[in-house]
Amino acid sequence: MIQRLTIELTTAELLSVAVFLGAVFGALAMVGLRRLSRAESVQAEPPDTPAIATDGGIETHDLRADGGSAIEMVVAYVRPDKLGDVKQGLAEAGAPSLTVTNVSGRGSQPAKKGQWRGEEYTVDLHQKVKIECVVADVPTEDVVEAISEAAHTGEPGDGKVFVMPVEDALQIRTGKRGTEAV
């Protein structure tokens, strides 16, 4: 014989159960979202990566003989799989500070054709990585050469490098301007 168990709860009892469960799950969420200490948040470098300073801790100085500021921005568009090589090349050239953005675009690299579910499609916007590097204390040509050598495969779509003058720079935290801000 099967017996049925029915539980009748009042509104107050239901409310207290809901508050209890909310407190339990809230506590579990707080434990999962706790902040890491600085020592815990630091990630070790992979063992095969050589120890090259990538914090930009290089003393700055003007390179121009006329005493003016010589700040330039190097912008490169390269294959995403060459980003690690470019970062390494820039660090070795003494210009480890950079900004990286994932972009897509079209240039001299030919479009790729494919087929999906019987339909043919063309991919004419290729995925690239945009690397921006503002230099003042390292010769711009060294930075351009480092990017060029690291990104080169010899195939269409290796990318392009552009050099633009920067009129001024300001470091927000310290208020330094010009080459000292870079």
From TrEMBL:
One example of the protein's molecular function in GO is: enzyme regulator activity
Annotated GO biological processes are: regulation of nitrogen utilization
- SUPFAM superfamilies linked to this entry: GlnB-like
Q: Which domain of life is it from?
A: Archaea
- Give the stretches traversing the membrane: 14-33
Membership in a protein family? Belongs to the P(II) protein family.
Give the protein name, as stated in the record. Nitrogen regulatory protein P-II
Give the classification, highest ranks. Answer: Archaea, Methanobacteriati, Methanobacteriota, Stenosarchaea group, Halobacteria
